[in-house]
Write a structure and sequence with these properties.
Blueprint (H helix, E strand, L loop, with lengths): L16 E5 L1 H18 L7 E7 L3 H10 L4 E8 L13 E3 L9 E9 L3 H11 L5 E9 L12 E5 L5 E2 L15 E4 L1
Parallel strand pairs: 2-3, 2-5, 5-6, 6-7
Antiparallel strand pairs: 1-9, 3-4, 8-9
Helix pairs in contact: 1-2
Bound molecules: inosinic acid and magnesium ion (MG).
Inosinic acid binds next to strand 5 and helix 3.
């Protein structure tokens, strides 16, 4: 992997990205997750609704969607970043799903579960829309910094306590295009 420059928009920092999960391992795991999810939802009578959390989960969602063998629709949510003093659970959404969720089987798609606050707040909001079922798929689970308990129904990889970039995950908006996952030191 070529050396990547520290993003100019962020505070200057010496960083060397180290490989954590190769694109081949990701592709294999995402296909397995697609099989697992397709099996769980095999008998539902409406298309599954994938609710993708912008922006980081889009790359994972695009691959996961194409690994499904059941019909699926796409919706998006976008969390506004936590302001200082934002109470836990009071997350604001900059974008909410557009279609009705009532009676639908909904699978929330996230890139990484860290403190757990983002997904828990979004799950609470989605559950108010009365879906028939609501589950969570996360590419990465980093349990070291969990602040709230989260039930992850489909997990790609459990990772150690490192900040990661690539495959949709960013540092100051950059590095989402990297095909594998790297950690910064
Ligand atoms: P949580 O609410 O603390 O669980 O934060 C999860 C959100 O923070 C994810 O949607 C990611 O966008 C972002 N995030 C957390 N850890 C990382 C990381 O290591 N790299 C990139 N983004 C991260
Ligand atoms: Mg995110």
């Amino acid at each position: 992997m070529p050396e990547v420059e520290a993003p100019t928009r962020a505070a200057p920092m010496k960083m060397s990205p180290r490989a954590m999960i190769s694109s081949d391992r990701i592709a294999k795991r995402v296909r397995e997750m697609g099989d697992e999810i397709s099996e769980v939802y095999r008998d539902i009578d409406t298309p599954l609704v994938l609710v993708v959390i912008l922006k980081g989960a889009t790359v994972f969602a695009a691959d996961l969607l194409r690994s499904l063998t059941i019909p699926a629709e796409l919706e998006f949510v976008r969390a506004a970043s936590y302001g200082s003093g934002t109470a836990p659970g009071k997350l604001k959404l900059a974008h909410m799903v557009e279609g009705p969720m009532i009676g639908r089987h909904v699978l929330l798609i996230e890139d990484i579960i860290d403190s757990g606050r983002t997904v828990n707040a979004i799950m609470r909001r989605l559950s108010k829309l009365k879906p028939a079922s609501l589950r969570l798929a996360a590419l990465l689970d980093r349990p070291a910094r969990r602040e709230e308990e989260v039930k992850i129904d489909f997990t790609g990889f459990v990772i150690p306590d490192r900040f990661v970039i690539g495959y949709g995950l960013d540092y100051a908006g950059l590095y989402r295009e990297l095909p594998g996952i790297y950690y910064l030191t």
